[in-house]
Structure formats: structure tokens, C-alpha cells
Amino acid sequence: GRTLRDGIADVHLLGLSAMEIQFIKVNPTVRPAFAEEVGRKPRELAQQLVVQVDPPGAKDARSPPFSLDTPIQRRDVLTTLTWSLAKEHADLATTRDIARALDVELTLHAPYYVDFFGSAQARERSIRQVQWSAVLAAGLGARLVVTHLGF
Keyword Nuclease on this protein (predicted)? Predict the structure, then answer.
């Protein structure tokens, strides 16, 4: 099977220097922090692509920003993604390192459909998706996040 890393190698072999990664078809899961995760950093969790950590009671996307290097606390609420291109933050870092070694600049395309003017629920979901795109882009070392906010 072809992978994102294969694609980066292909871009390099073709003499190209940039590649856009699409952040589409993801499944978010919102769940409480597990006891064994308390005290660990989100980026250290195996087989978990954590893109958001909220304190208990956070209700919308305007909660304070989080850091992948801040230890998880008891009662935190984690949002993880199931994404075909990475299973955990270590995957993002490996992909970033391969791209850098091959001198391929990465960009990330946020989800195509965002709705900032619809219902409150649609607006919050859209804000979160753009925020998650930034988290993934940072992990990949992507220079840009592309969005289509006018849809």
C-alpha cells in the first residue's frame, strides 16, 4: 500500500519540493482521561492522536489553548482523532523528519467544509476542526494550513 511517507519520497524523486496533506475523513472521539494517562504529556500517548485537552466543564472551542507538553490532569477531557495518515504524535514527527531529510516542504489542508455562520453547534465544530488542523500541521512541521472559509 501507498502511504503518506511514500508520497513524500515520490515528490522528492520527481524533483518537486512541496506537498499538501489533506486533513479529511477523520473521526474525533471525546473521552475522559484514563487513570494511566494522568501525568503524561498528550504527545507521549501511544496509539492516541490527541488534538485537544479540555478542563472539566469546558463547553466550546473558546476554552484556553492547550499544550501537547502539559501533563494530563485527572478529569481532563481528551479529543483524539482516528486518521489514516497518523495514529499518534510520533507518526507525525517521523513524517516531518522524512520530509525535512528529503527537502520537501509540507502544507496541510484543513477540512473543506466549515460553517462559521450556521448553528452554534456547526460553528463550534468548524472552529475545532481548524484548531485541530493547526495541531497536526505543527506536528508535521507544515509551514501553512490551507482553509476555504468562504464555503
Answer: yes
Exposure string (b/e) for 14-34, b if CB count within 10 Å is 16 or more? eeeeebebebeebebeeeebe
Taking the C-alpha atoms of residue 24 and residue 20, their distance in angstroms, rounded to an integer, is 12
Residue with cell 476542526: 129
How far, in Å, CA of 147 to CA of 87, rounded?
23
Within 10 angstroms of residue 96's Cβ, the number of other Cβ atoms is 17
Pairwise CA distance, residues 127 & 28, whole Å = 14
Is there a contact between 8 and 19 (Cβ–Cβ < 8 Å)?
yes
- DSSP secondary structure of 49-76: EEEEEE-TT--STTSPP--TTSPP-TT-
Q: Which residue has the cell 512541496?
A: 18
pLDDT digits (tens, 9 = 90+) for 101-120: 999 999 999 988 888 888 99
- Stated as kind and residue range, the H or E segment containing 110 is none
Enter the pTM of the model: 0.89
Q: How far is Cα 77 from Cα 72, in angstroms, rounded to an integer? A: 9
